[in-house]
Amino acid sequence: MASSNNQPDDIWQDDFVLLMDYFTDTVKNPPPNVGTTPKELLYSENKLRLFRYKALDIKQKKTPVLITYALVNRPFIVDLEPKRSLVLRLLEQGYPVYLIDWGYPDSSDCFTSINDYINGYLYRCVQQVKRDSKKKKIDLLGICQGGVFSLCYTALHLSDIRKLVTLVTPVDFHADDNLLKNWTSGISPNVLTQQTGNISNLFISQLFKTLKPFQLSRDKYRQLKQLVSKKENLETFLRMEQWLNNGPDLAGLAANEFLRNFYQCNHLHNKTLTINNQNVQLEKIKSPVLNILATRDHIVPPDAAKALSEHIKPTLYHELSLDGGHIGAFTSLKTQQKLITALTDWLG
Amino acid sequence: MNAKEQNIFKQFNALIGSNIPEEYKSILQNFQQQNTFYQQLLQNIDSGSDLSKFWELPDALGFNIDTQGQPEWLKAIFDINHLQPSSNDPFSHIIEEIPLQIKDTVQSLQEKMAAMASLHNELSQLAMHKFQTLNDEGNNLPNEQLCAHWLKAGEEAFAEISQREDYVRTQSEVIEALGQIKNTQSTFVEQLSNTWGLPSQQSIQDLQKGLHQLRIEFAEYKEETSAVIDELKTTIRKLR
User: Fold this and answer.
1) Which of A28, A131, A187, B209 would suit a FRET pair with A310, their CA atoms being 20 to 30 Å apart?
2) Is A144 one of the catalytic residues?
3) Minimum-distance CB partner of B168 among A5, A183, A192
4) Residue A175 C-alpha, separation from nearest chain B C-alpha, in angstroms
5) Closest by CA position to A224, among listed B54, B39, B74, B5
6) Whole-number percent of chain A with pLDDT over 90
7) CA angle B175, B180, B181 (to 5 degrees)
């Protein structure tokens, strides 16, 4: 018969007091900054911002890397803090790095479509990076839904991309263990839009929490000792909370299209996806592709990402597995070295 | 409550009422609430009480309509205005106050919610059974191990039940029922707007589409111009 051991209260109380003391002194302990790697605004359009990161004082590689993140959550996760910054690691290797910040859609953006994002915003950002770097082709690094957009873009604009990296990117949305696909299969997309015509970030955030409800809603707040034992642990936690709780709404039309075309109908993997009346065929991609997946990813199960190998010519396709979760794959200190080594070796 | 606990309570309340950043307040409240939860869990384990309530999914997700009302994430999509749930029948007062067509959709929602509650109850029972199996492997397990077993039991039970066809179907039906309420409300509000000469939803959407189209056209025009200017610059450089 199970029974608990005593004296948990005193330890927790002492740790909670430490946490409260930390929060009390907001002059000494303001909310930690995120996305602090120096950058400058290269281009803006409506809510979108295209940033160019300031090069470090080292020899620069020739081809720039444009990072495209998902529409869900903010892109500064790739530059969460100096120790956990994919951006900074790339800069340290001499890569010119650019980042798309999609911004916060409002009600005037509710009719933004997938075509607008891929053949509009992303296209114009790629052209800006080409002009700025004076290169005819660039390297594209897409993360999660940003990887889906990057795949579609590369298939539709063959001459723009030298090399493509997809990171935790779903291709087969009907692969096994895809809980999101199961849950969204019977839903009419329009039912989730608000008065603004967009889908609230509160709902999206809750949806992701519901994938592991007990871990993400309760267990996360049990590890108090680990947080208060070291200031940097707490600061990392606070930065992650900032990222989790400040997501944008999703433009209604694009969200509905993504739900219907990818999650419900799996058009991309089935080779039946059309964007702006053009058939998106990943088989047409002529650029080398490095597909990086996370072995413990509960949002993009490994098989959902591995399915890309069925579409890209074997001579062009490279795959790398990282031991981690969806976000941990590129924020975890354990996988960082393996990730950046693979990127450096492959991008050249 | 002993003196130490009183001091902590006092400091906590002072911070929640102060002007520290809202994100700090939210984090403090979350840690405090979850600590209360885990303390109750461990106490119930000690006393041999029924543990199934500790895997109640709506409670874990912040949706306990008896005590907290609609959570913000649900209000963001389905704002059932002026909802004041009673302990037995959360939607009963709405039925008395609003037109018949909404009554039907609310009743439909109640049926679906009841089906969902039944599945959640099944999840709790399954999790409790798994928890007992895990704990039977050892005696006098430390608290850390018990909490780890609680988590494992809960997530495994959830993984099993949430992928079942009946769970997926019932969840979809709840969302569709909420959507029907929203549509019925929208129709009702649209009728009132017409009566009062306010812009219709269609006219607002027309404006949104028009603005969106203008933005796209302008951006495309800017891009074409930038491309031409860049080409001209390149040509001029070559000519020099």
Assistant:
1) A187
2) yes
3) A183
4) 13
5) B39
6) 81
7) 100
